[in-house]
Amino acid sequence: MTTTHARSFSISRRLEQIPWLDYEGIAVASRASLLSDNKRRDLGDVTEGSSFLAVREPSRLQRSCKKIEKRKEWRQLSHEEKKSYIRAIKCLQTKRDYGISPVTSTLYDAFTQVHTTDFRAFHSSSPFLPWHRWFVWVHDQALRHECGYSGSSPYWDYTIDYKNPTGSPIFSNDPEVGFGTHGSIIRNEIGLGGYQVDNGAFANFTVNLPVPHYLTRNFSAWKDADPTGVWGYQLGESYSPMQVAKLLASPTFWDYEQNVDALNVTGRFGVHNSPHFMVMGDWNGPGWVVNTPWALNGTGAPNEPMFWPHHQNVDRIFWTWQQQPGKQWEYNGFRAINVSGVPLDVPLERVPALPTDPLPFHGLGPDIPVAMALKTENWPMCYTY
C-alpha cells in the first residue's frame, strides 16, 4: 500500500490486521446490524450495504458481551486508575502501528494519522458522532491490549467546570495524574503559536505529526476567537449545563449534529468544538497549521491526550440523547463525498446519510457501517454510562 503525505514523499508499508480486534466477529456483527436496520426501516432482506451483508454468518462467529462496562467521569477514578490511564496513553507512543502511517510508526501517532485522513468525511456532517464513537472505542481497546489498562474509560464532564475550565482537576500539574497546563516555553515551530507542555504527566511529551514536536497548548488564545467575551471565560458558556440541555432537546439526529458542532453558530462555538478552541495548540486541529505546508494534513487533534476524555464526554451526551423514546437508532442528515484534497474553506458535495453508509478507518481495524456504532451496549463495544 502506497500513501502520499504533504511532505512530498511516499512510503510503501503493508497494512496488517490488528491482533486484538476480532475482524471476523466484527464482520458478522456488521452484517447483523444492517439486517436489523433493514427491518426497522421495513426494507426487508435487501442488498443495501451489500459489502457488509455479503458476509456469511456461521454461528461460531456470533459474539455477545460478557459484561457491560460503565464509564466514569475523571473525578470518579482513583489515583491509581488515573495514573494507570495516563501511563497507558503514553505507552502507545512505544507501540508499533501495524503499517497505518506513512510518516511515523507508533500506535499513538496512528490515531492522529487516521483522524487526519479524509478528515472532512466525518466532521461537520452526520458521520461525526458514530465515527468518533468507534474511533474512541478502538483507542480504549489499544490501551487495554497494548498497554495493560484495566480501569474504566473516563470522560471529562466540562459542565462541572464551565466557569473555570482550565481550573479543572484534570489539568492538574501532578506528575502522575495531571494532564498539565499549557506550560511556559513558547513554541511556534509549524503554525499557530503555543506553549510546550512542561508540567503534569505529559511534561515534555513529543508527538510526530505532521512533524516531530512537543505537545503544545495555549490556554489564552480563546480570547482571539471570542474577543468580546460573548461565550464567557474560556468559552465556558458554550458548553455549560444550559447549552447541553438545549442540545439534548434537539428533535432529530440531524438537528443534534448541527447543534453539537454549532454548524449554524458564528465561530462554531459549541459543546464539541469549544473545548478544542479553549485549549488550542495541538488540540485545535486544522487551525493549528493553517497557512502552512501541512494545512491539509494538520487535523491532528488526537496529538492532544485530552482528546480522549473530551470525546468520551461528547459520546456520553450523545448516548444520553439516544435514551429518549425513538432515538436509539435514528440516523439522518447528510454526509460529504469526494473529500480528498479539498481545501478546508471549499464547500463539499453532500448526499443523504444512511445507517448503511460505511465508516472509514484507514487500517485502524475494519471499516464498519454506521448502524454498528449506534448502540454502545451491543458487541463489541459493550459499554454504557
From TrEMBL:
GO terms for molecular function: metal ion binding; oxidoreductase activity. It holds the Pfam family Tyrosinase. It comes from the Eukaryota. Transmembrane segments: none annotated. SUPFAM superfamilies: Di-copper centre-containing domain (SSF48056). InterPro entries: Di-copper_centre_dom_sf, Tyrosinase/Hemocyanin, Tyrosinase_Cu-bd. Keywords: Copper, Metal-binding. This is Tyrosinase copper-binding domain-containing protein. It comes from Serendipita vermifera MAFF 305830.
